[in-house]
Design goal:
Elements lengths: L3 H31 L9 H26 L1 H25 L7 H21 L2 E3 L2 E3 L4 H16 L20 H7 L9 H27 L6 H10 L8 H11 L2 E2 L13 H7 L1 H22 L7 H16 L1 H21 L2 H23 L11 E3 L5 H9 L7 H10 L1 H9 L1 H15 L6 H19 E3 L6 H5 L2 H20 L10 H33 L5 E2 L8 H18 L6 E3 L6 H8 L18 H16 L5 H8 L3 E5 L11 H4 L4 E2 L3 E5 L10
Parallel strand pairs: 3-6, 7-8
Antiparallel strand pairs: 1-2, 4-5, 8-10, 9-10
Helix pairs in contact: 1-2, 1-3, 1-7, 2-3, 2-6, 2-7, 2-11, 2-12, 4-7, 4-8, 4-22, 5-6, 5-24, 6-7, 7-8, 7-11, 8-21, 10-11, 11-12, 11-13, 11-14, 12-13, 12-14, 13-14, 13-19, 18-21, 19-21, 23-24
Length: 693
């Protein structure tokens, strides 16, 4: 029996190795060539730490520009920086003196290894006999696999869920583009490259924490220890575990993702990495650009230099990685410019303005490629951050909230509770930091003010704006990433000062404060533990009937069996069909996620809405969905017509389709390419010539 778990683990590790030169070499070489952060004169460890974040900051947009306009130069660039990196590393080895490696370096490497193991275990399919269980995160990743396939075939890509006629893809897809590059030269499954990209994004975030501790906080000592503590704090989230357990034990209803207790979540660090690595990559790019400009300004350098150009490219990359995170940085930079004007710091203001202008120039070709039919919805709307859980809890206590005005007032009054539950320890860190600033125990330096601009921007957007482009409020969720990063820096310093540096000299009256912070830390770790466990094990427990809860899974208790059949069928189809083939299942199915996850091909209608938010005409989508759904549910003789009209090469029927149980339907009269107890893949007439020999 084919063990898909082993295939996924080995494939993901292989993809990590394949991505390693692309993730490390460009940042290392560019940092050395331009002497960013004075890297040539600093210890080798700093150059290693800077490499991955700098690559994430500049290479997504650079890869897009080269792939679109000068594709041969794309590989010349990456081969060139790889050769240069090898030469620089060889020079580093020759010049290095024998010295013992710091214990904190070993700690950091151990944490990276632990993160890699956690990510692999959380993401790959778990096979139990003839049952297969994907992670709950497959709900999002299924969409991104399709986008990666579209990007791997052509830049700029088309919407893979609305093929024939093709329409430009409107999405922040540069992370998928960058991670898919190895598939152009070696055979790797796109899912494995996506998982590897998540792992490397986590490594980049770990490195950014070290850079932030050193260059943003500019602590006087114990930089390595504070950095390790900052990385450990990635395991801490808010107090989400409390409402999650209340729902679980009170209603016997368990959440497959802990964040779903609140419609307006502030996602944990591990949740952000496992669900939405492209948003974290945008955070890395935007923060590194901000940090680089601040460093150059404090060094008293010219208002236009290589660092400003790199920062502009990093901001441009951020725009193609996550429009929501980039929007937050735009607001933060605007607030920071106001602060610079108030301080009459014209040189630094010129740096930020110049970097912004350069970022627009870099990003224009990408932004112009997003134009196409469909969409038109406003980016955001003004609305106070809702707290439906708090209102529901208040109503159970007898407090009536009937009108919209009453709900608005309730949301406003419950904002502290909302943020307290979502941020937990980190909200306490921010309050304590503000208190120390008020008392004058912390110097009000430029970086301190800049940090507060990032925090304020996140809270302003998260409190008063909401997304309008999609159903979920992604803007309100992802805008908090910059604030979370700054609060993590401050949290690492607080933990270090309270527990690892001179704790015995702290006044006795603060012991209760340490106890309260320790309690928040423990609850935050428990929340992350619950989240990681449920993302992995909820499908197994639900399929066995052990728990009930909120998820996207099929409810018929044959989920694992059916997923194994679906993936097995698509594995065979993937070997027989060209990458350009269009493979279509019933768009009105509860199993949409696994079909998108394992197909690797375009759809004529990917779901009931054809994902027209990514590009396409809604009226055309409705017509083709009507015809396709009728074919799978009502039968008829439209098999050849549907295939011809929408350029479909293979139709995939499932035992959840009504026509499956009609012995005279096209599902049984046509000869299948692949068939098992749950799936039958039937070729259209045009497929015969396109099937690989």
């Amino acid at each position: 029996m084919h063990n898909f778990t082993i295939v996924d683990v080995l494939g993901t590790l292989k993809a990590c190795v394949a991505l390693a030169p692309l993730m490390f070499a460009p940042g290392y070489v560019i940092a050395w060539a331009l002497n960013l952060f004075e890297s040539r004169t600093r210890r080798p460890a700093l150059r290693f730490i800077l490499a991955v974040p700098l690559t994430i900051a500049i290479c997504p947009m650079l890869s897009f520009l080269l792939a679109r306009f000068l594709e041969p130069v794309l590989w010349v660039f990456y081969i060139g920086v790889l050769v240069a990196c090898c030469l620089l590393l060889a020079r580093e080895v020759r010049a290095a003196k024998l010295r013992s490696v710091s214990k904190y370096a070993w700690f950091a490497l151990g944490l990276i290894a632990l993160w890699t193991a956690t990510a692999v275990a959380s993401l790959v399919d778990l096979q139990v006999g003839n049952k297969l269980y994907p992670s709950i995160t497959a709900y999002d990743h299924s969409t991104r696999v399709g986008i990666m396939g579209a990007v791997a075939r052509h830049v700029p890509p088309t919407n893979p869920f609305f093929a024939h006629p093709s329409v430009p893809l409107r999405y922040h897809y540069l992370w998928m583009l960058f991670c898919s590059l190895p598939s152009r030269i070696i055979h790797l499954q796109l899912r494995h490259l996506m998982y590897a990209g998540i792992i490397w994004c986590g490594v980049g975030l770990i490195c950014v924490i070290a850079l932030g501790i050193k260059f943003w906080l500019r602590v006087s000592g114990d930089v390595a220890q504070r950095s390790v503590l900052g990385v450990v704090l990635l395991c801490v989230t808010g107090l989400d575990i409390l409402p999650t357990l209340l729902i679980g034990f009170g209603a016997r209803w368990w959440l497959s993702d802990m964040e779903w207790w609140n419609a307006e979540q502030i996602t944990s660090w591990l949740g952000s990495l496992l669900w939405v690595p492209h948003h974290v990559a945008a955070l890395i790019a935007g923060f590194l650009a901000f940090l680089l400009l601040r460093h150059e300004a404090d060094a008293g350098r010219c208002w236009i230099n290589a660092s400003v150009v790199v920062a502009g490219l990093a901001f441009a990359s951020a725009a193609g990685l996550s429009v929501y995170v980039t929007f937050t940085f735009v607001i933060a930079v605007g607030l920071w410019l106001l602060a610079l004007v108030a301080r009459k710091d014209w040189t630094e203001a010129a740096m930020f303005l110049c970097a912004g202008a350069i970022s627009v120039i870099w990003a224009l070709p990408y932004l112009s490629s997003l134009r196409g039919p469909g969409g038109g919805t406003a980016f955001a709307k003004f609305a106070l951050r809702p707290f439906s859980f708090g209102i529901a809890l208040a109503q159970t206590l007898g407090i009536s909230v009937r009108t919209q005005a009453e709900a608005t007032w309730a949301n406003a009054l419950l904002l502290p509770v909302n943020y307290g539950l979502e941020l937990g320890f980190f909200l306490a860190v921010g309050i304590l930091r503000l208190r120390r600033l008020w008392r004058g125990s912390i110097e009000v330096c430029a970086n301190e003010v800049a940090g507060w601009t990032l925090v304020m921007s996140s809270f302003l957007i998260g409190t008063f704006l909401q997304s309008r482009t999609i159903g979920s409020n992604d803007l309100g969720w992802r805008c908090f990433l910059p604030a979370q990063l700054v609060l993590l820096f401050w949290g690492a310093t607080l933990v270090h000062d309270l527990w690892f540096h001179g704790a015995a000299r702290q006044p006795a009256r603060l012991s209760w404060g340490r106890l309260a912070l320790a309690s928040l830390l423990i609850l935050g770790v428990l929340g992350t533990t619950y989240q990681v466990f449920m993302l992995r094990m909820f499908p197994v427990l639900h399929d066995r009937g052990d728990i009930e809860g909120q998820s996207w899974l099929n409810e018929d208790r044959h989920f694992g069996e059916r997923i194994y059949a679906i993936r097995s069928a698509y594995e065979i189809l993937g070997e027989q069909l060209p990458a350009s083939a269009v493979v279509q299942n019933n768009p009105d199915t509860k199993d949409l996620v696994p079909h998108e996850m394992y197909s690797g091909h375009d759809f004529a209608a990917g779901g009931l809405d054809c994902s027209v938010g990514f590009g396409g005409d809604e009226s055309l989508c409705q017509e083709r969905v009507r015809r396709l759904a009728a074919l799978f549910e009502d039968g008829g003789n439209d098999f050849a017509g549907v295939c011809h009209d929408y350029g479909i090469d293979v139709l995939v029927a499932e035992d959840t389709d009504a026509e499956w149980y009609e012995s005279t339907s096209w599902i049984w009269t046509e000869r299948p390419m692949v068939a098992n107890h749950h799936i039958r893949a039937l070729p259209c007439a045009s497929t015969t010539a396109s099937v690989r020999p």
